[in-house]
Amino acid sequence: MIESISVGKISMPSVGLGLWKIDQADTAQTIVDAIELGYRHLDSAADYGNESQAGAGIKKALDSGLCSRDELWITSKLWNTFHRPEHVKLACEKSLRDLGVDCLDLYLIHFPISLKYVDFAERYPPEWFYDPDVDVPKMEIDPVPLSETWSAMEGLVRDGLVKEIGVCNYNTGLLHDLMAYADIKPSMLQIESHPYLTQGRLIRTALDYGLAVTSFSPLGALSYLALEMATKNESVLTENVIRAAAQRVERTPAQVALRWAIQRGTAIIPKTTRKERLVENISLYDFQLNSEEMAQISALNINRRFNDPAVFCEQAFNRFYSIYD
Asked: Is 48 a catalytic site residue?
Protein backbone atom coordinates (compact mmCIF):
# COMPACT_ATOMS: atom_id res chain seq x y z
CA MET A 1 0.00 0.00 0.00
CA ILE A 2 1.50 3.33 -1.09
CA GLU A 3 1.36 5.94 1.66
CA SER A 4 0.26 9.51 0.98
CA ILE A 5 1.33 13.03 1.84
CA SER A 6 -0.82 16.13 2.14
CA VAL A 7 -0.76 18.54 -0.80
CA GLY A 8 -2.91 21.53 -0.03
CA LYS A 9 -6.32 20.19 0.94
CA ILE A 10 -5.90 16.76 -0.67
CA SER A 11 -3.64 13.72 -0.40
CA MET A 12 -1.10 12.54 -2.98
CA PRO A 13 0.61 9.13 -3.11
CA SER A 14 4.20 9.62 -2.01
CA VAL A 15 5.55 7.47 -4.86
CA GLY A 16 4.58 8.23 -8.42
CA LEU A 17 5.63 7.26 -11.90
CA GLY A 18 7.71 9.94 -13.59
CA LEU A 19 7.01 10.12 -17.33
CA TRP A 20 10.13 12.09 -18.32
CA LYS A 21 12.16 10.28 -20.99
CA ILE A 22 9.63 7.49 -21.52
CA ASP A 23 9.38 6.91 -25.28
CA GLN A 24 6.01 7.66 -26.83
CA ALA A 25 5.71 4.07 -28.01
CA ASP A 26 6.11 2.78 -24.45
CA THR A 27 4.12 5.39 -22.53
CA ALA A 28 0.57 4.04 -22.70
CA GLN A 29 1.44 0.46 -21.77
CA THR A 30 3.82 1.59 -19.02
CA ILE A 31 0.98 3.55 -17.44
CA VAL A 32 -1.38 0.58 -17.66
CA ASP A 33 1.27 -1.68 -16.13
CA ALA A 34 1.96 0.82 -13.34
CA ILE A 35 -1.70 1.29 -12.44
CA GLU A 36 -2.24 -2.47 -12.50
CA LEU A 37 0.67 -2.83 -10.05
CA GLY A 38 -0.76 -0.23 -7.66
CA TYR A 39 0.51 3.16 -8.82
CA ARG A 40 -1.98 5.99 -8.49
CA HIS A 41 0.31 8.99 -9.09
CA LEU A 42 1.47 10.03 -12.57
CA ASP A 43 3.90 12.90 -13.07
CA SER A 44 3.66 14.38 -16.54
CA ALA A 45 4.58 17.58 -18.39
CA ALA A 46 3.92 19.18 -21.75
CA ASP A 47 7.64 19.16 -22.47
CA TYR A 48 7.93 15.40 -22.10
CA GLY A 49 6.24 15.04 -25.46
CA ASN A 50 4.15 12.02 -24.47
CA GLU A 51 1.02 13.44 -22.87
CA SER A 52 -1.34 12.21 -25.61
CA GLN A 53 0.15 8.72 -25.23
CA ALA A 54 -0.19 9.05 -21.46
CA GLY A 55 -3.84 9.96 -22.04
CA ALA A 56 -4.31 6.78 -24.05
CA GLY A 57 -2.82 4.75 -21.21
CA ILE A 58 -5.01 6.46 -18.62
CA LYS A 59 -8.12 5.83 -20.73
CA LYS A 60 -7.25 2.16 -21.19
CA ALA A 61 -6.69 1.72 -17.44
CA LEU A 62 -9.96 3.46 -16.58
CA ASP A 63 -11.93 1.59 -19.25
CA SER A 64 -10.49 -1.69 -17.96
CA GLY A 65 -11.70 -0.92 -14.45
CA LEU A 66 -8.20 -0.90 -12.94
CA CYS A 67 -9.10 2.23 -10.98
CA SER A 68 -11.39 5.23 -11.10
CA ARG A 69 -10.35 8.75 -12.09
CA ASP A 70 -10.87 9.87 -8.50
CA GLU A 71 -8.22 7.39 -7.38
CA LEU A 72 -5.59 8.81 -9.75
CA TRP A 73 -3.32 11.76 -9.03
CA ILE A 74 -2.24 13.45 -12.26
CA THR A 75 0.35 16.21 -12.35
CA SER A 76 1.34 18.27 -15.37
CA LYS A 77 3.52 21.34 -15.89
CA LEU A 78 3.44 24.70 -17.64
CA TRP A 79 6.25 24.94 -20.18
CA ASN A 80 8.60 27.91 -20.43
CA THR A 81 7.14 29.27 -23.66
CA PHE A 82 3.68 29.71 -22.11
CA HIS A 83 4.50 32.05 -19.21
CA ARG A 84 2.57 35.04 -20.51
CA PRO A 85 -0.81 35.21 -18.72
CA GLU A 86 -2.77 34.90 -21.96
CA HIS A 87 -1.04 31.60 -22.74
CA VAL A 88 -1.26 29.85 -19.36
CA LYS A 89 -4.86 28.67 -19.66
CA LEU A 90 -4.35 27.62 -23.29
CA ALA A 91 -1.35 25.51 -22.28
CA CYS A 92 -3.22 23.89 -19.41
CA GLU A 93 -6.21 23.11 -21.63
CA LYS A 94 -3.89 21.51 -24.19
CA SER A 95 -2.48 19.20 -21.50
CA LEU A 96 -6.00 18.39 -20.31
CA ARG A 97 -7.05 17.42 -23.84
CA ASP A 98 -3.94 15.31 -24.40
CA LEU A 99 -4.30 13.54 -21.06
CA GLY A 100 -8.02 13.04 -21.61
CA VAL A 101 -9.11 14.48 -18.26
CA ASP A 102 -11.30 17.39 -17.18
CA CYS A 103 -9.16 18.51 -14.24
CA LEU A 104 -5.56 18.14 -13.09
CA ASP A 105 -4.79 17.34 -9.49
CA LEU A 106 -1.65 19.48 -9.68
CA TYR A 107 -0.23 21.95 -12.21
CA LEU A 108 3.29 23.29 -11.79
CA ILE A 109 5.42 26.04 -13.33
CA HIS A 110 8.12 23.83 -14.87
CA PHE A 111 11.03 26.28 -14.65
CA PRO A 112 11.42 29.90 -13.55
CA ILE A 113 12.50 30.54 -17.15
CA SER A 114 10.28 32.48 -19.55
CA LEU A 115 10.89 31.90 -23.26
CA LYS A 116 9.31 33.47 -26.31
CA TYR A 117 5.92 32.03 -27.19
CA VAL A 118 5.70 29.30 -29.83
CA ASP A 119 2.21 28.56 -31.13
CA PHE A 120 0.88 25.00 -30.78
CA ALA A 121 0.30 24.80 -34.54
CA GLU A 122 3.92 25.72 -35.22
CA ARG A 123 5.58 23.20 -32.90
CA TYR A 124 4.45 21.21 -29.88
CA PRO A 125 6.01 20.63 -27.53
CA PRO A 126 8.10 23.70 -28.39
CA GLU A 127 11.15 22.61 -26.35
CA TRP A 128 13.95 25.17 -25.83
CA PHE A 129 14.81 26.73 -29.19
CA TYR A 130 12.69 29.60 -30.45
CA ASP A 131 13.47 28.75 -34.08
CA PRO A 132 15.39 25.49 -34.54
CA ASP A 133 15.71 26.06 -38.31
CA VAL A 134 17.95 29.14 -38.27
CA ASP A 135 21.70 28.79 -38.79
CA VAL A 136 22.47 29.19 -35.10
CA PRO A 137 19.35 28.35 -33.09
CA LYS A 138 19.19 29.52 -29.50
CA MET A 139 16.92 30.08 -26.54
CA GLU A 140 15.10 33.40 -26.76
CA ILE A 141 14.14 34.91 -23.41
CA ASP A 142 10.80 36.69 -23.01
CA PRO A 143 11.03 38.58 -19.69
CA VAL A 144 7.66 37.89 -18.07
CA PRO A 145 7.44 38.58 -14.32
CA LEU A 146 6.81 35.34 -12.45
CA SER A 147 4.11 37.11 -10.46
CA GLU A 148 2.08 37.55 -13.67
CA THR A 149 2.46 33.88 -14.54
CA TRP A 150 1.43 32.89 -11.03
CA SER A 151 -1.67 35.08 -11.17
CA ALA A 152 -2.74 33.19 -14.29
CA MET A 153 -2.04 29.90 -12.51
CA GLU A 154 -4.41 31.01 -9.75
CA GLY A 155 -7.02 31.57 -12.43
CA LEU A 156 -6.82 27.90 -13.34
CA VAL A 157 -7.84 26.98 -9.80
CA ARG A 158 -10.73 29.44 -9.84
CA ASP A 159 -11.88 28.08 -13.21
CA GLY A 160 -11.85 24.52 -11.88
CA LEU A 161 -9.21 23.28 -14.33
CA VAL A 162 -6.75 22.29 -11.60
CA LYS A 163 -7.08 21.46 -7.93
CA GLU A 164 -3.64 22.52 -6.70
CA ILE A 165 -0.80 24.62 -8.12
CA GLY A 166 2.89 24.79 -7.40
CA VAL A 167 6.37 25.30 -8.78
CA CYS A 168 9.41 23.36 -9.94
CA ASN A 169 13.06 24.31 -9.79
CA TYR A 170 12.57 27.37 -7.56
CA ASN A 171 15.28 28.44 -5.13
CA THR A 172 14.65 29.85 -1.67
CA GLY A 173 14.68 33.47 -2.87
CA LEU A 174 12.00 32.84 -5.47
CA LEU A 175 9.99 30.86 -2.95
CA HIS A 176 10.06 33.64 -0.36
CA ASP A 177 8.98 36.12 -3.04
CA LEU A 178 6.17 33.88 -4.28
CA MET A 179 4.77 33.41 -0.80
CA ALA A 180 4.69 37.20 -0.36
CA TYR A 181 2.51 37.92 -3.41
CA ALA A 182 0.46 34.75 -3.97
CA ASP A 183 -3.26 34.98 -3.30
CA ILE A 184 -3.58 31.22 -3.75
CA LYS A 185 -0.48 29.79 -2.13
CA PRO A 186 1.54 27.07 -3.84
CA SER A 187 1.06 23.61 -2.39
CA MET A 188 4.02 21.86 -4.01
CA LEU A 189 7.70 22.43 -4.70
CA GLN A 190 9.25 19.91 -7.09
CA ILE A 191 13.05 19.86 -7.18
CA GLU A 192 15.99 17.65 -8.03
CA SER A 193 17.07 15.91 -4.84
CA HIS A 194 19.07 12.76 -4.09
CA PRO A 195 21.92 11.86 -1.71
CA TYR A 196 24.42 13.90 -3.75
CA LEU A 197 22.08 16.93 -3.74
CA THR A 198 20.12 16.90 -0.50
CA GLN A 199 18.87 20.53 -0.70
CA GLY A 200 18.18 20.52 3.03
CA ARG A 201 17.72 24.27 3.44
CA LEU A 202 15.38 24.58 0.48
CA ILE A 203 13.27 21.62 1.61
CA ARG A 204 13.10 22.99 5.14
CA THR A 205 11.99 26.38 3.80
CA ALA A 206 9.25 24.78 1.70
CA LEU A 207 8.00 22.64 4.58
CA ASP A 208 8.01 25.66 6.90
CA TYR A 209 5.70 27.39 4.43
CA GLY A 210 3.41 24.38 4.34
CA LEU A 211 4.39 23.18 0.88
CA ALA A 212 4.83 19.52 0.11
CA VAL A 213 8.07 18.59 -1.68
CA THR A 214 8.57 16.14 -4.53
CA SER A 215 12.08 14.97 -5.39
CA PHE A 216 12.70 14.28 -9.04
CA SER A 217 15.68 12.19 -10.14
CA PRO A 218 15.75 10.56 -6.68
CA LEU A 219 18.38 8.07 -7.87
CA GLY A 220 20.68 10.82 -9.09
CA ALA A 221 22.92 10.13 -12.05
CA LEU A 222 20.84 7.25 -13.43
CA SER A 223 18.39 9.75 -14.94
CA TYR A 224 21.13 11.54 -16.86
CA LEU A 225 23.51 8.91 -18.22
CA ALA A 226 21.75 8.60 -21.57
CA LEU A 227 21.77 12.40 -21.92
CA GLU A 228 25.52 12.52 -21.23
CA MET A 229 24.83 14.82 -18.28
CA ALA A 230 26.34 12.35 -15.80
CA THR A 231 28.89 9.57 -15.75
CA LYS A 232 28.63 6.03 -14.41
CA ASN A 233 31.10 6.73 -11.61
CA GLU A 234 28.67 9.31 -10.18
CA SER A 235 26.06 6.75 -9.11
CA VAL A 236 25.03 7.05 -5.46
CA LEU A 237 24.09 3.37 -5.57
CA THR A 238 27.75 2.36 -5.34
CA GLU A 239 28.31 4.25 -2.08
CA ASN A 240 29.36 2.01 0.81
CA VAL A 241 26.79 3.44 3.24
CA ILE A 242 23.94 2.74 0.84
CA ARG A 243 25.17 -0.74 0.02
CA ALA A 244 25.63 -1.55 3.71
CA ALA A 245 22.12 -0.36 4.52
CA ALA A 246 20.76 -2.40 1.61
CA GLN A 247 22.43 -5.49 3.00
CA ARG A 248 21.01 -4.88 6.47
CA VAL A 249 17.42 -4.40 5.31
CA GLU A 250 17.73 -6.99 2.54
CA ARG A 251 16.71 -4.58 -0.20
CA THR A 252 18.41 -3.13 -3.27
CA PRO A 253 20.60 -0.01 -3.11
CA ALA A 254 17.97 1.77 -5.23
CA GLN A 255 15.27 0.97 -2.69
CA VAL A 256 17.48 2.34 0.08
CA ALA A 257 17.99 5.62 -1.80
CA LEU A 258 14.25 5.89 -2.44
CA ARG A 259 13.39 5.02 1.16
CA TRP A 260 15.82 7.71 2.37
CA ALA A 261 13.91 10.27 0.30
CA ILE A 262 10.55 9.20 1.70
CA GLN A 263 11.75 9.13 5.30
CA ARG A 264 12.99 12.71 5.01
CA GLY A 265 9.48 13.75 4.05
CA THR A 266 9.57 14.11 0.27
CA ALA A 267 7.52 12.39 -2.40
CA ILE A 268 9.40 10.74 -5.26
CA ILE A 269 8.70 10.12 -8.96
CA PRO A 270 11.21 7.55 -10.27
CA LYS A 271 10.95 6.64 -13.94
CA THR A 272 11.06 3.15 -15.40
CA THR A 273 9.34 1.11 -18.09
CA ARG A 274 10.31 -2.29 -16.64
CA LYS A 275 7.68 -4.14 -14.61
CA GLU A 276 10.20 -5.49 -12.11
CA ARG A 277 11.47 -1.98 -11.46
CA LEU A 278 7.93 -0.65 -11.13
CA VAL A 279 7.38 -3.18 -8.36
CA GLU A 280 10.74 -2.42 -6.75
CA ASN A 281 10.13 1.33 -6.72
CA ILE A 282 6.90 1.08 -4.70
CA SER A 283 8.05 -1.68 -2.33
CA LEU A 284 9.32 0.82 0.21
CA TYR A 285 6.91 0.76 3.13
CA ASP A 286 7.72 -2.42 5.01
CA PHE A 287 11.24 -1.45 6.09
CA GLN A 288 12.93 1.56 7.64
CA LEU A 289 16.39 3.06 7.72
CA ASN A 290 17.74 3.83 11.17
CA SER A 291 18.82 7.30 12.23
CA GLU A 292 22.50 6.55 11.69
CA GLU A 293 21.89 5.34 8.14
CA MET A 294 19.75 8.39 7.39
CA ALA A 295 22.50 10.70 8.64
CA GLN A 296 25.24 8.86 6.77
CA ILE A 297 23.33 8.94 3.50
CA SER A 298 22.56 12.65 3.95
CA ALA A 299 26.28 13.22 4.55
CA LEU A 300 26.97 12.08 0.98
CA ASN A 301 25.80 15.51 -0.19
CA ILE A 302 28.28 17.22 -2.53
CA ASN A 303 25.75 19.64 -4.08
CA ARG A 304 26.00 17.77 -7.39
CA ARG A 305 23.22 19.10 -9.57
CA PHE A 306 22.67 17.11 -12.75
CA ASN A 307 19.75 19.16 -14.08
CA ASP A 308 21.31 22.64 -14.18
CA PRO A 309 20.19 25.17 -16.82
CA ALA A 310 23.46 27.08 -16.35
CA VAL A 311 25.20 24.03 -17.81
CA PHE A 312 22.80 22.41 -20.28
CA CYS A 313 21.31 25.60 -21.75
CA GLU A 314 24.73 26.85 -22.79
CA GLN A 315 25.91 23.47 -24.04
CA ALA A 316 22.77 22.47 -25.92
CA PHE A 317 20.81 25.66 -26.58
CA ASN A 318 23.49 28.32 -27.15
CA ARG A 319 22.40 30.51 -24.28
CA PHE A 320 23.88 30.81 -20.79
CA TYR A 321 21.03 31.05 -18.29
CA SER A 322 21.64 30.41 -14.63
CA ILE A 323 18.86 30.03 -12.06
CA TYR A 324 20.97 28.63 -9.20
CA ASP A 325 23.88 30.55 -7.66
From this structure: yes
